[in-house]
Amino acid sequence: MYKRIIAASLLAVGALPVNADDHTCGKVTIADMNWNSASLIANIDRFILEHGYGCDAELVPGDTMPTGTSMVEKGEPDIAPEFWSNSMREGLQRGIDEGRIRYAGKALIDGGEEGFWVPQYLVDDYPELKTISGVKANAKLFTHPEDPSKSAFYGCPAGWNCQITSTNLFRALNLADSGFEMVDPGSGAGLAGSIAKAYERKEPWFGYYWAPTAVLGKYDMVKIDFESGTDIDHYKQCVTANDCLNPRVTMYPAADVDTVITERFAKRAPDAVAYLETRGFTNDQMNTLLAWMEENQADGEYAMTHFLIEHPEIWTSWVSDDVADKINNAL
To answer: How far apart are the first and last CA of the chain?
Structure first.
């Protein structure tokens, strides 16, 4: 009950206007992207910038391409808290070269993570499954749902960009030679559901997934070591291409997930920018928060209250003691 009262009070405080005398960075617009991790970070930034740095912070709807384009061409919004930069690398670089935008730290410290995974409980019984050679040697464990004579590899849903990379790496790893056949899960929900079903029954599962996600926050999974290292150039030039004729084995490189800000905002609010340059989540931290959001059907605003109340050990490391006191007073 105490935490519910605190959470309700926090939401109420967040809705109050900031004293104009406290403004040091003026009005700030923050892109509230349409996926959970980005919305959570946007709400956290809004509250901390408003109550810790005196900004008149406002959330505005956002999505990767339209937000990035608008920041470069129109100088708004001021902040895109979680931007998957590889999806718009050339456009962002143009904005940087023209002095319109800049990167301000990493939203996800580890970067976006992709790979082929197996459940932890399976590795507990078969430690060799941590490597791709161990998976191949134990291919018979991963029974295909429609053909028991084959082994199942759950790929990325058809039509997604990751279908290209997972298919090319399936080929590069010669998994078919070990008896594996790719299973199309049909959708993101279908892929997540296949992991949940395996976990409920403690059955073998092998396939593609990514982080941060609620799934990897809820289920303890082990990323397979391809025993190859990471060849970033080959990954970008061939593994990501539909017409990659001879893909080579490489681990997935981490995807850059940055905070992007306008130069106009950077110049007028250096203290707020210093916070954004420090603020960031590990994938383990974000996976846990996303799992909590899913279990509690929480949106970004409600998850923000949970985070600030329950995890001061994380956010107080991003700010000075003075700013932390202001945030705690607001709470």
So the answer is: 16
pLDDT digits (tens, 9 = 90+) for 113-149: 999 999 999 999 999 999 999 999 999 999 999 999 9
CB of 154 closer than 8 Å to CB of 207: yes
Quote the CA–CA distance of 288 and 285 in Å, as a whole number. 5
Question: How long is the chain?
Answer: 331
Backbone angles phi, psi at 67, to 5 degrees: -70, -45
pTM over 0.90: no
Q: Which two tokens stand for residue 20?
A: 């104009």
Give 113's strand partners.
211
Residue with tokens 């939203």: 107
**Reduced 3-state DSSP string for the chain:** CHHHHHHHHHHHHHHCCCCHHHCCCCEEEEEEECCHHHHHHHHHHHHHHHHHHCCEEEEEEECHHHHHHHHHHHCCCCEEEEEEHHHHHHHHHHHHHCCCEEEEEECECCCEEEEEEEEHHHHHHCHHHHEHHHHHHCHHHCECCCCCCCEEEECCCCCCHHHHHHHHHHHHCCHHHHCEEEECCCCHHHHHHHHHHHHHHCCCCCEEEEECCHHHHHCCEEECECCCCCCHHHHHHHHCCCCCCCCCCCCCCCECEEEEEEHHHHHHCHHHHHHHHHCCECHHHHHHHHHHHHHHCCCHHHHHHHHHHHCHHHHHHHCCHHHHHHHHHHC
In 3D, which of 240, 256, 276 has the Cα closest to residue 28? Answer: 276
Token pair belonging to 156: 């990325």
Q: What is the pLDDT of residues 153-198, one digit of tens each?
A: 999 988 887 899 999 999 999 999 999 999 999 999 999 999 999 9
| Inter-residue contact 218 to 202 (CB < 8 Å) | no
Cα radius of gyration (the chain): 22
Query: Does the pLDDT of residue 17 top 60, yes or no?
Result: no
CA gap 323, 325 in Å, rounded: 5
